[in-house]
């Protein structure tokens, strides 16, 4: 029997509070702080929920939130900067997301009703990159939950995912090496803020490389246009494995075996190695699950935050794991 009540067992509506807190200059984040409908604890543990790539505002995660509330946790969800009721300019890069998550933690530490020693971070996809980055610089974070979080050395994970897509497209090792070498040279030049003409030449070389290995010219141009984005560059630049190596708080990383967005086998291996020095870390692969930790469901048109389809095996695993680590007691027992 599960030690955490499921969403169906909870009939009460969590208490909800609209809150605001500052992040970067001219950026104020709008969020919803939800408390469990009843609890015996004076100070509440809280889980900050971090969405993935895309223009996400508050909402979604209904099953996960209900399970966390049933386990005695408060939850905080927020509109990304520049979206919904949050101010500022929408910038979806890893550094911007990292600053907004850190701002959420700083805000929660001002609350008299929150247990400042039991603040956990939970993110999916890009949000699962931001969570350990914040926690690696803030050892007082109580726990980290990563859902479908890409892990690997700077650039290598990105290129590994690209290699997987090219392999699925039927390209040879020689062709794959040609394309990834061109992409790496271009990305590195962009990171170093190289001369504009040099960067333009390297960009053209990537288009040519895609075309030379058999992609139509317009498709090659479209591929490169998708890569020519500050969000993509921020993902290339991040060394997520280094962040995980520094974590010593309880850490749970969950992957779906049918994830077609990232290469799960690469991230599972990299996460396992990076977390081997953490005395309370576990990496879990769930068969048949997609990137959104659902079964055979289409990918959302933008972003990666699960809606109602998050599978109970995932929500209960997260709820039970957090309840044991952060010492909450399920109601009704």
TrEMBL record:
Protein name per Swiss-Prot or TrEMBL: Alpha/beta fold hydrolase
Keywords (A to Z) from UniProt: Hydrolase
Taxonomy, superkingdom: Bacteria
Pfam families in the cross-refs: Hydrolase_4 (PF12146)
Species of origin: Qipengyuania qiaonensis
GO MF term list: hydrolase activity
Domain Serine aminopeptidase S33: 46-293
